[in-house]
Here is the input.
Amino acid sequence: MDLDQIVAETAADIEPHRGKGKVADYIPALAKVDPKKFGIAIATPDGACPKAGDADESFSIQSISKVFTFSLALQKAGDDLWKRVWREPSGTPFNSIVQLEREKGIPRNPLVNPGAIVVTDHLIDNGDADAAIDNLLRVLRDHAEDDSIDIDYEVAMSESETGARNRSLAHFMASFGNLENEVEVVLSAYFRQCALALSCAQLARAGLFLAFDGKDPVTGERIVSAQRCRRILAVMMTCGHYDNSGDFAYRIGLPGKSGVGGGVLTIAPNEGAIAVWSPGLNDAGTSTVGALALEELVERTGWSIFG
Ligand code: GLN
Here is the structure.
């Protein structure tokens, strides 16, 4: 299979759709991104990276960071993590608060905002949010083999300034005893993880271990056990796109995670990790053109896990 050609054809297919969807406008740094941007990159086990469009331009990965913090928390806590967060799809928007009261402060899954806030809390030792973020950054740089990956501090600042909803979620969970650290400590880490800036090429490379049973096929490094890797992918498949997860599974048939910056990280088991970026979003906060591109790509490669 000629992936360079498939990626080029996929990029050509979506050309007439560029600019579709609604760019996130809750913070200026996201609102000002050109809606016509589009990038696609596939990290493959031989270390290659077929890519097209704006695949080397950094964007705000936002909720895609939740996959990496979830993976780290599973390594740290093992099954104890499931005492504080469930693994069921929510069927509600990413920042919904309604289920939390009925379900006594236990969020539905690690990939919605309240679940990710609990996961981040779990990664903070001795109230040191900076150390948790330093570790996350180191892990991403290691996975991607790229020390230039960084946080966009303008975005992080804006996340905090507009973070009333995330603060509400965190305080609500704290009232049920489901946060170990102070709300502001946890959120200072959460806002920074949302503001991680990566390109499609870097993101696909960082997620490649998830396509190979938790082991980086390029370096040979085991990052998570094969069993945990399967479980991370199961949660991505069922919960990675909030109330759009069913539609994503139906159309693309691969585990993925979207972010409101317009990125989507998608895993094709035993094949590679695909990152797409296009800032216009659908109503659930998944990239409209990104999802279209993935649909085209899966059609051409036959990579859907459903055959
Ligand atoms: N920063 C956003 C928030 O916390 C991330 C949401 C997302 O990417 N879906 O609300």
Q: What stands out?
A: Residues 62-63, 94-95, 113, 159, 166, 194, 259-260, 285 surround glutamine (CB under 6 Å). The CA atoms of residues 174 and 183 lie 7 Å apart. The domain at 3-301 is CATH 3.40.710.10 (Beta-lactamase).
